[in-house]
Amino acid sequence: MTTLLTGATGRVGSRFVLRLLAAGEPTRVLVRSEEAAESLRRRGAEAVVGDLRDHQARTRALEGLDAVVHLAAAFRGVPDEEAVEVNQTASLELARSAVAAGVTRFVLASTNLVYGSGRGRPARESDPVSPTGAYPESKVAAENALRGLCQRDGLGLRVVRLAFVYGERAPHLAESLRWAREWPAHQRLQLVHHADVGQGLLRALRSEGVDGMTFNVADDAPVTAVELHALNGEAVPAEAAARPLDDPWAGIVDTTEARARLGFRPIFPTVYAAKNAGAL
User: Fold this and answer.
1) What letter would DSSP give residue 253?
2) CA–CA distance from 38 to each of 3, 20, 33, 35, 198 (Å)?
3) What is the DSSP annotation of 102-141?
4) Strand duo 223-224 + 188-189: pairing
5) Could you give phi then psi for residue 102, rounded to 5 degrees?
6) Is residue 76 a contact partner of residue 136, using CB atoms and an 8 Å limit?
7) 165-185 burial, b if ≥16 CB within 10 A, otherwise e?
8) How far apart are CA 13 and CA 32, in angstroms?
9) DSSP character at residue 233
């Protein structure tokens, strides 16, 4: 099975592409520069140079393929219009092109930010979503549009909603302080290590009988704002302990479905396991 990977030069994709190749998966990437393409060719990937938003580039990239893992996204620091254009519009066009090309499996990376708060328990895939902000809103719109293609045109869709990704020298844990500094001391953030992102995506790609399904992928032990400060070597603001916490379950997800249907078990069930293994 030959797989097209988008977003192969991003923080998540640059690590996942190496796992795809190490797993022996024939891999093609769509990248925007010849320099990036040549670097990935040296690692064993086939590379197509072009923009995800360009029809001809998508057509070249999808020719003769079996599957797509779609990681390309516009996230922090971009205008709302760009987030919609990349995360929603381009994702739908890619999926339409994949159907036309006869692609049988399409894995969409999404986010646990789609859930919002207010359930009083970890969020499940079957829960109504309540996104706030252009990034999760555009992800929800993409999920919904692709589910329509799955139902009408047979797109073999698998949606993977990722928790806050960290590890392998990525700067995410340090960046978490931009929020944690303003949080109540006991507010929690659910994490997922790059190794487990890779595991979750590969399992979603390879599993049979899961077309149209959505899976939460996260570790087993959300960390508090206090812990995030400690992991980053920073003191907790004195006022954090007195800040109110409206919903202690906000941002926390249930991974039962991924465990049951994909066989997902975190390699790093806690951030401390990753730290002890030297995998931060």
Assistant:
1) B
2) 18, 17, 9, 5, 23
3) T--EEEEEEEGGGS-S-SSS-B-TTSPP---SHHHHHHHH
4) antiparallel
5) 85, 20
6) no
7) bbbbebebbeebbeebeebbb
8) 14
9) T
The H-or-E segment that residue 93 falls in is helix 91-101
Q: Which two tokens stand for residue 236?
A: 């907790």
DSSP 193-210: EHHHHHHHHHHHHH-SS-
Helix (H) or strand (E) holding 37: helix 34-42
Write out pLDDT tens, residues 119-157.
899 999 999 999 999 999 999 999 999 999 999 999 999
Alpha-carbon span 25 to 45, nearest angstrom:
9
CA 60 – CA 237 distance, rounded (Å): 52
pTM here? 0.97
CB atoms within 10 A of CB 221: 16
3-state helix, strand, coil in the chain (%, to 5): 40, 15, 40
Q: Please, what are the domains in the chain?
A: 3-163+193-218+253-266 (3.40.50.720)
Q: What residue type is assigned to position 142 of the chain?
A: A
Token pair, residue 33, equals: 């520069």
225, HSE (Cβ side, Cα atoms, 13 Å)? 22
pLDDT tens sequence across 153-197: 999 999 999 999 999 999 999 999 999 999 999 999 999 999 999
Q: Evaluate whether 162 touches 109 at the Cβ level (below 8 Å).
A: yes
What are the residues whose beta carbons fall under 8 Å from the beta carbon of 215, sequence distance 6 or more?
A: 125, 158, 159, 160, 161, 200, 204, 255, 257, 258, 261, 262, 264
Query: Which pair of tokens denotes residue 169?
Result: 């020298």
Of 105, 28, 88, the residue nearest 59 (C-alpha): 28
